[in-house]
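Example record

One chain of 291 residues, shown exactly as stored in the release files.
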Amino acid sequence: MQEGTSVPLSYPHRNDDYAYRVPTPPRIVVPPPALTNDAHPDIKLGASKFLPMASDAYANIVSSDPVMEWTYERRREAQMILPYLYLGPMTVAKDEAWMLREGITMVLGVRQKHEFSFKLMDAALRRVHAVGIETQTVDLANNMDLIQAFPHTTEMINSHLSRHHNAMGGLGKVLVFCESGNERSAGVVAAYLMETHQDVDYIKAMQLCQAQRFCVNFDDSMKRLLQGYWDILCAKTSVAAEAMKQSENPCVRSKRGLEREEDEGVDDSMHDDDLERFGGRTFMPFADAPL
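Predicted structure tokens for this chain:
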């Protein structure tokens, strides 16, 4: 090697290129569902938790293959997600003949504030109300407001179905729509499926919506929103189960309620369990600085 020649430095411990982008959570992948012998998506649903009148289990709610039978024009139509729940765009809400033919008894519009489509949706809702169909709306400042609106939209749907059943003897049918029928309203329907069916998590809810309405768009933000709502539902279920256990057997104390009673002769700063763990140790990872 000649004198004065520089040698490039090498880093044998470096296994991959450095990334300078903002850290992001891992993507949520929604796998395609398994297929039946008829090449239809195999998605089964159990009975609804909140609607006893709809207690019949669905053998296979998806009756067609959306990949093979879907056409571009169908995005302008509404699709049946459940026998009493439809998902579609705003143009369907303006089709009075279709709603009367399908027996729609309530429409739920998911509106985005401060947009031109807000006024257009108002016009569609007035036409729906004029033909005697109940109208409900949920107004959002942005998509992040959906996670707070999900319990309210589920309650509105179930309340209407229950009232219609008590008055007319049938469940009725609800159409959930937004401007395109592919984003915010699809999130509302997916959240409804998670909350009303024990065997549906956020992945299965998105699979069911996509299997019935192939053009729905669950982007990364909406997927994480539904995942977060699913975590909330699981936490509520766990708390309710623990409360039920406590009411049935009040002698059993919860895990957080287990507290060791301190003996009178033990210093307040050192509990029995602390003594058991640290009593025989001589190593001190930290030491107080001298005053």
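Notes: The chain has a mean pLDDT of 82.
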